[in-house]
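In this supplementary section we document a worked example of the pipeline. Step one takes a protein sequence of length 219 as its only input; no multiple sequence alignment statistics are reported here. Step two produces a three-dimensional model, which step three serialises into C-alpha cells for compact storage. The input and output of this example are shown verbatim.
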Amino acid sequence: MIDINDFINNRIKPLNITESIADAQDLFAEYTFSHFPVTENGIYIGCASSEDTELMDIEKTLEDMHYTLERFFVRDTTIWLDVLEVFAKNETNVVPILDKDNNYLGYYEITDIIQFFHQTPFLKEDGGILVVQKGITDYSMSEVAQIVESNNGRLLGLFISEANLEKVQITLKISLGGLSEIIQTFRRYNYDIISEHQEDAYINTLKDRSDYLDKYLNI
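The serialised model returned by step three reads:
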C-alpha cells in the first residue's frame, strides 16, 4: 500500500509573510486552494485563507493580515485518519506538514488523501456496506465485530458515521458470509438497520402485498 508521506507536496512554494496581498490573490486565482501555508524565514506561521485574502487591500502585505492566519497543521508522522480529521475540522483542501522540529516539509491536498483512502481495503476490496444504529450507551464495537464474524463474515473496516446524545450509527464494510444472516442477527441484538438492502426490499415487497391482500379481503 502507498505510504501517506508519498503525497507530501512541494509543487508550489509557501507564501512568504513579506509578499503582497496581490501575490496571494494571484495564487488563489490560479489554484483552487481554500488556504495556503505562510512562512517567515522558513518557519511556518499559519495558513492564509482565500476568503480573507480576497477582502484585503492589494497594496498591503501578508504581514498586515497575520492576525487572520489559521494555525492548523499535521506532522509527517500523523496517521491518515487524523489527517482527514484536520481537513474536515478546518474546512480546507490543503494542510501543511511539519516535522518533529517544526520544520515546514510541504502540504497535503485533499484529493491526494482521498486517493490514499481509496487504496485501503475498506474501499478497494469487494464487499457489502451495512449501516446499523443503536443507543449510545448500548452499543459495543466488540459485539458488532462478533455478530459479523459469527456469521462467517470478514470485517474490512468500521467507523462511527453519525452520533448524537441518544443514538450512534456504525458503518461497516463486510466481505464474505451471508449479509442477510448478519442483518437478522443485528436485529436480534436490537440494532436498527439504517442502510437499504436487497433482502430488505424483498421482505418489504412481500409485506406491501400482504397488506394489500388484507385490505382487499376486508372490503
